[in-house]
Write a structure and sequence with these properties.
single chain; alpha/beta; 10 strands; 37% helix; binds S-adenosylmethionine; binds 6-(5-methyl-2-OXO-imidazolidin-4-yl)-hexanoic acid; binds iron/sulfur cluster
Length: 352
């Protein structure tokens, strides 16, 4: 792993580690009260470097202050407009720059989307997220997606959309249609970003998040790990997210899905323990967020997923497909959640 020695050097002592220096409040002593003090990347890196048991303990302490740790949100994804995307995101099977064999489709009809929403609702999902492979939607796209948002809201689910860069007037139109969340990931740290994407820059992403925030739609923003970034760069991503004012309400943490034909297809696997650490650090730095254990679960063991929940993940993508790649099937997820004694949001007092 490409981690500086200074970050890895960690005394193995059974006592409270040195508290993050650059943090105004005392996170090491369990003070998780809201604070405006920004998270320095170095302070986030110190969290990453904690002994695993200490890190998990802190994450669990924070988690329990804000959530029932046995509760998990089930969010279902649907790609309403797939493939042919002009952006060159190095991880993405839907980019027209990469020979992945994903065919470009037209936008789905409201009828077809309603059918998918009903299926997701019957399976127990409470959030429905629609993705489109656009750089940014046009006026007519926004009208079409607004119609889809109304379909989701009609069926009583929370509506989320991820459509690329968003102008404020477009965010406003979606808000009026009832959109609850907009997903737009920062993806990685500012200093690694250019290695992965060249067709839009980091500031474009921050601008979109601001437009979403300004119209009162909740922000869903996270990133991908396992793209070859260093631990310090993972800390850089988390610091960026945590320093948004306020931090995102939802934070998807994706483990890279290596799709043949994409530039990142041959990346070495990220150590699962490092993935769990990323979840724990997201939980500690963004105490009231839904931290979503997102893409990559199909390659993950049940034990790794269990550790992610223990580290503060409290949301998953639920349904047999993500956008174009696979996800664990619904029966397997139900069985896992039952084994772990976890219950879905919206289902009081019993498992899924
Ligand atoms: N086109 C829109 C955009 O990029 O803003 C929305 C859809 S895009 C597929 C949403 C997010 O999915 C990306 O920002 C990225 O974080 C995640 N993603 C895409 N491909 C992935 C992969 N192979 N593995 C993990 N996450 C991935
Ligand atoms: C997010 O953070 N992950 C989701 C959702 N937001 C849109 C997408 C994951 C995509 C995984 C690869 C694919 O199926 O395209
Ligand atoms: Fe296009 Fe989104 Fe894929 Fe990037 S992540 S290539 S913007 S669909």
């Amino acid at each position: 792993m490409n981690v500086p020695d200074t970050v890895l050097a960690q005394p193995l002592r059974f006592q409270r580690p040195v508290q993050p220096m650059a943090r105004a409040r005392d996170a090491s002593a369990g003070d998780t009260s809201a604070s405006d003090a920004p998270w320095a990347v170095a302070a986030v890196a110190e969290l990453f470097a904690l002994p695993f048991a200490e890190l998990l303990h802190r994450a669990q302490t924070v988690h329990r202050q804000h959530f029932d740790p046995t509760e998990v949100e089930l969010a279902t994804l649907l790609s309403v407009k797939t493939g042919g995307c002009p952006e060159d995101c190095g991880y993405c099977p839907q980019s027209a720059h990469h020979p992945t064999g994903v065919a470009a489709t037209k936008m789905m009809t409201p009828e077809a989307v309603r059918e998918a929403v009903l299926g997701a609702k019957a399976a127990g999902a409470t959030r429905f997220c629609m993705g489109a492979a656009w750089r940014a939607p046009k006026d007519r796209d926004i009208e079409a997606v607004a119609e889809l948002v109304r379909v989701v809201k009609d069926e009583g689910l929370e509506a989320c959309a991820t459509l690329g860069m968003l102008e404020q007037r477009h965010a406003q139109a979606l808000q009026q249609a009832g959109l609850d969340y907009y997903n737009h990931n920062l993806d990685t740290s500012p200093d690694f970003y250019g290695d992965v994407i060249t067709t839009r820059d980091y500031q474009d992403r921050l601008d979109t998040l601001q437009h979403v925030r300004q119209v009162g739609v909740k922000v869903c923003s996270g990133g991908i790990v396992g793209m070859g970034e260093s631990r310090l760069q993972r800390a850089g991503l988390i610091a960026q997210l945590a320093n948004l004012q306020p931090h995102p309400e939802s934070v998807p943490i994706n483990d890279l899905v290596k799709v043949p034909g994409t530039p990142l297809a041959n990346q070495p696997d990220l150590d699962p323990i490092e993935f769990v650490r990323t979840i724990a650090v997201a939980r500690i730095t963004m105490p009231t967020a839904r931290v979503r254990l997102s893409a990559g679960r199909r390659q993950m063991s049940d034990e790794t997923q269990a550790l992610c929940f223990a580290a503060g993940a409290n949301s998953i993508f639920y349904g047999d497909k993500l956008l174009v790649t696979g996800n664990p099937d619904v029966d397997a997820d139900r069985e896992l959640l039952t084994r772990l004694g976890m219950k879905a949001v919206g289902l009081q007092g019993h498992a899924v």
